[in-house]
Amino acid sequence: MEREAQTSDGLIEVPASEILAKIEKGEPVEYEHVIIEGNLDQDQLDLPIDPIDRTLYEVVVLKLPEVVKVIKSSISIQNSEINGSVNLSCVFLSSVSFNGTKFHKYIDFKGANLEILLIFEEL
């Protein structure tokens, strides 16, 4: 795991590509007190796709897809910062937690099958 230098506030910089690689391999993603540089985007992941039962409202009004990517990895990013956008509208088979994490750009979990705790702070 290659990481960049510590920032002035003591957080270690981690490239988003490192996290995406773990997700593709089905490995647990566990980080605390880091700054993630880059986008966490499902479109960059080569993952299996499964159909998902959607209501007519979800398909017609919300325009949610009827096939989605499946993430097997547990994801725990605690007390950190994500400087890129997050687009993970997937099926999650394991736990997902972003407790205490600040998001600095666009976040999209639209249609994902998970319950997460997001802490937003105005910057």
Description:
The protein is of the alpha/beta class. The protein has one domain (12-108). The chain is 13% helix and 31% strand. It is built from two helices and 13 strands. The radius of gyration is 15 Å and the shape is elongated.
Keywords:
single chain; 123 residues; alpha/beta; four-stranded parallel sheet; three-stranded parallel sheet; 2 helices; elongated
Topology:
Layout: E1 12-15, H1 16-25, E2 29-32, E3 34-37, E4 40-41, E5 49-51, H2 56-61, E6 67-71, E7 75-78, E8 81-82, E9 86-87, E10 91-92, E11 96-97, E12 102-103, E13 107-108
Parallel strand pairs: 1-3, 2-7, 3-8, 4-9, 6-10, 7-11, 8-12, 9-13
Antiparallel strand pairs: 5-6
Q: How far apart, in Å, are the first and last alpha carbons?
A: 30 Å
Number of strands: 13
Largest sheet: 4 strands, parallel
Q: How many helices does DSSP assign?
A: 2
**Low-confidence blocks of residues:** none
Integer-rounded radius of gyration: 15 Å
Q: How much strand content do the residues show?
A: 25-35%
Strand order of the largest sheet: 1-3-8-12
- How confident is the prediction overall: mean pLDDT? 85
Shape summary? elongated
Question: From the structure provided, what is the oligomeric state, counting identical versus distinct chains?
Answer: single chain
Given the helix and strand composition, which structural class is it?
alpha/beta
